[in-house]
User: Fold this.
Amino acid sequence: MSQRKSQKTSTSRNRRGITTSLVIFLSSILGFGALPLFVFTQSPASASQSLIAPVQQTPVVVNSTTIDLSWYPSASPTVTGYNVYEGTTQSGENLNKPINSTPITSTNYVATVNPSGNYYFVVEAIDASSNTSPQSNEVEATPTNNPILYVSTTGSDSNNTTCSQTQPCLTIANAVSVANNGDTIDVAAGTYDTSSSGTISPSKDLTIQGAGASSTFVGGTSAKSLSGSVFAVNSGVTATITGMTIQFGYASYSSGGGIDNAGYLTATDDTVSDNKGENNGGGISNSGYLTATDDTVIGNQVSYGDGGGIYNNGTFTATNDTITNNQATNGSGGGIYNGYGGALTATNDTITNNSANGSGGGIYNFAYITITLTLAATIIADQKSGSNCSGNVTTDAGYNL
Assistant:
């Protein structure tokens, strides 16, 4: 009994001694300012690991100095904006200086560049604490002097100076105004009522292309004609108009209800229909250089002058065209009137069912000064009124009907 008591007393003393020693040991450590052994620190995860990178889409070259960038948003919920970095070599972006002055809150950015060389871009997402994501995929773009501007019935002209594929313009007129020489304007399928906005008059060299004459319609409507020509190509301008129907223009006291050309115009795969001119050229008036291929000129009318379908007083080459059901109400040349200063070459064309109150239901060639009218493999037949062909045909290349 006394032995057990002695053992308990000894154990108790030992415990008190250990406790006293531990307290003294810890006190001495704290007294010297040492850190407690039980304090641990952990470095936070890096920002580039906590934010998810955006994914860039294919860039759109708007013109020789403008590139439209867009990307899919970061999946991180804390993202407040994006920075865009640019370089002129692959993986050579300057990651210390974004090209945007403030964080971009949308998923689109228009970059202004020099008109030469290749450009490379990456995008980073940022949060409110300026943490950044890893870089997006890198995209490449090469500025060109012949970019494409886009027009769509679902587009917008408001503050739109790029007419990009992702943000198209609403009207052809706006695309023409912001385009540069040599640009192409792509007009999507749809009806573009210009009866309120007026004549489209390019003053620079452009290609305006539609989705096809049966899909893209430009001009007035059956309910309201456009006051003026649908297109007017100015002197000195080189233009191409292709793949659309040009309709319901009304050139009162002037010429060319559909097209009035004083420049260098190529018209291909177009339909020019239901237009009216009071002076000359119900459908088309040409005083410049006109090349028309695979076009249909139908249902046009001139009220007081000549050329129900086409009035030519310039240089006109017509190939594989159909000119039908046009009318010169009080003049000559129901289908075509070739004026005293005109040079007309018609090849593989069909000119039928036109009418003129004067001469030449199909073609009237005015022989006053030097005139050139060359016909080859062209059908001129079955005019509603007026002879099929009147005036002086200087060259018959054969195979005409």
Q: What stands out?
A: Residues 2-31 form the longest helix (30 residues).
